Amino acid sequence: MANLKDIRNRIKSVKSIQKVTKAMKMVAASKMRRAQERTEEARPYAKRLAEVINHLLPDVNQNLLPLLDIRKIKRVGYVVVSSDRGLAGSFNTNVLKTAQAEIETIGKKNVDVFCIGKKARDHFKRRNYNIIESHIEFWNELKFGNALAIGTGIISHFTQKYVDEIHVVYNEFVNVASQHVVSERLLPLVFESDKKPIIDRLYEPNKDDLVKNLIPRHLNIQMWKYLLESYVSEQAARMLAMENATGNAEDMIKELTLKFNKARQAAITKEMLEIVSGAEALQN
């Protein structure tokens, strides 16, 4: 029979852990709401900017910018967006598995990795991947300047022809209960050609100048979108994970309490039997 003191200590420990997971859930929920607002505000601008560039690209010279340069694929860059912390369910595991699977298909010797978040850095560092840059410990004060700083190194790596393509793997926020991993090409910029609008649009200044100005802005916004989507997905995943952990702790407390009551009842029954046996022995 389990010791009553041990069971009582276990119940106390589980209750302490439950308080922590409940607090973490509330913190994650608060952060997620703010991050979700920022993400939803950025999405329409990013989408509209991409549509404008999509209309312009078919009418401009592809040699206008190095960012439009389509080369034979010999070496590829991968930007992997993870978090600095764990306790977020399968948030980091899914994105790291997807990135590693795609990299292994190409061959790790032919891939340069840009790690965003400690989890990505530690994962690929342990496996001896060629890490070009790693960016950590900025999530708590996430600003647009972070996207600019990260994007500068990535874009420069492409324009200097160290790699011929750059892909980004990140978590896209769908809703509180769902985030799915997305892998998309960032560079070179290739948009799907669509039908030209019936109404002839006038662009001022000319299309070449517009493309030169809009494409760098588009890339910065894309990088900002990746960070926002990943951050809100992380908080949603952590909130759900902590909610499940809190529920599991409650179930464990109930189970241990039942076990404690059974053990206590058995101990009381044993003491009563000893008392009765002692009384009978005295009478005899």
Query: In CATH, what is the homologous superfamily of the largest domain?
Result: ATP synthase, F1 complex, gamma subunit
Number of helices: 5
Q: Low-confidence segments, ≥5 residues, pLDDT <50?
A: none
Class from secondary-structure proportions: alpha/beta
Number of strands: 5
CATH T-level topology of the largest domain: Pyruvate Kinase, Chain: A, domain 1
Structurally, the number of domains stands at 2
Placed side by side, the strands forming the largest sheet appear as: 3-2-1-4-5
End-to-end separation in angstroms reads 32 Å
Rounded to an integer in angstroms, the radius of gyration calculated over CA atoms is 29 Å
Overall average pLDDT: 88
Strand content: 5-15%
H-E order: HEHEHEHEEH
Principal-axes shape call: elongated
Question: What would your notes on this structure say?
Answer:
- The chain has 284 residues and is of the alpha/beta class.
- It contains five helices and five strands, in the order H-E-H-E-H-E-H-E-E-H.
- Strand 1, helix 2 and strand 2 form a beta-alpha-beta unit.
- Helix 1 packs antiparallel against helix 5 and helix 4 crosses helix 5.
- The radius of gyration is 29 Å and the shape is elongated.
- The relative contact order is 0.18.
Write the layout of secondary structure elements.
Blueprint: H1 4-56, E1 76-81, H2 91-106, E2 111-116, H3 118-126, E3 131-135, H4 144-159, E4 165-175, E5 178-187, H5 207-283
Parallel strand pairs: 1-2, 1-4, 2-3
Antiparallel strand pairs: 4-5
